[in-house]
């Protein structure tokens, strides 16, 4: 009997990064468009929400990102 490999679902950050790369944008371009520091775009893509001063910042930038 073959065992099925379980694939972990993509995180939100992985999905954002894949979408950005597929569209051909750099992090700097996205940062400029959503009016956020590049470090926050990187934090969203790395699922590092603790780097934001408050949750509301992460949510606001995320809404602009997508």
- N-C termini distance: 42 Å
Query: Based on helices, strands and strand pairing, what is the structural class?
Result: mainly alpha
The best one-word shape is globular
**Which segments are poorly predicted (pLDDT under 50) over 5 or more consecutive residues?**
none
**Main sheet, how many strands, which sense, barrel?**
none
Helical residues, percent: 55-70%
Number of helices: 4
Beta-sheet strand percentage? under 5%
The overall average pLDDT, rounded, is: 91
Q: Count every beta strand, where a strand is a DSSP E run of 2 or more residues.
A: 0
SSE pattern, N- to C-terminal: HHHH
Rg (C-alpha, Å): 14 Å
Give a verbal description of the structure:
- The chain has 66 residues and is mainly α.
- 59% of the residues lie in helices and 0% in strands.
- It contains 4 helices and no strands.
- It is globular, with a radius of gyration of 14 Å.
- The model has no long low-confidence stretch (mean pLDDT 91).
């Amino acid at each position: 009997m073959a065992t099925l490999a379980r694939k972990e679902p993509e995180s939100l950050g992985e999905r954002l990064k894949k979408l950005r790369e597929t569209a051909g944008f750099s992090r700097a371009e996205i940062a400029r468009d959503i009016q956020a520091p590049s470090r926050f775009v990187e934090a969203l893509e790395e699922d590092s929400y603790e780097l934001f001063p408050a949750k509301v910042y992460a949510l606001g930038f995320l809404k602009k990102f997508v």
